[in-house]
Amino acid sequence: MSIPQKPAGYSAVSPYLIVDGAAASIDFLKQVFDAVELRRFPDAEGRLLHSEVRIDDSVLMIADCVPEWPAVPAHVHVYVRDVDATYRRALDAGATPLQAPEKKQDEDKRGGFRDARGTTWWIATRVE
């Protein structure tokens, strides 16, 4: 019997965020996206060496930065059920607005914000 190449319920691609403040990032994702925390591996000082959350059908991996792995700004796109409500929750959670949700040329209504750790989140809901 062969071993699957990935855990059950994981997609083949998972964004990996290296941030200054991984625990706070997880709290933000729970508040904004109803993320579910899957795993958390802290070191002796409480920094997160590795953590995982599920947002809808995707797993996002997050770790605290260290000198050999500095924080890196990232952009992540997430399809959500209600782009307007998600955008409001993000701003209520302290995110910086980048683009209020609006319908443009494609089938999506989308917007964007930046969280306190520097990750830019683009969110969209299919409207057509």
TrEMBL record:
**Residue ranges, annotated region (Disordered):** 94-113
Query: Gene3D superfamilies, per this entry?
Result: 3.30.720.110, 3.30.720.120
Q: Which residues form the VOC domain?
A: 9-126
**Record's compositionally biased regions (Basic and acidic residues):** 101-113
Q: Could you tell me which InterPro entries the record lists for this protein?
A: Glyas_Bleomycin-R_OHBP_Dase, Glyas_Fos-R_dOase_dom, VOC_core
Q: Which PANTHER family match?
A: BNAUNNG04460D PROTEIN-RELATED (PTHR34109), VOC DOMAIN-CONTAINING PROTEIN (PTHR34109:SF1)
> What is the protein's name according to its record?
Putative glyoxalase superfamily protein PhnB
Q: Which organism is it from?
A: Rehaibacterium terrae
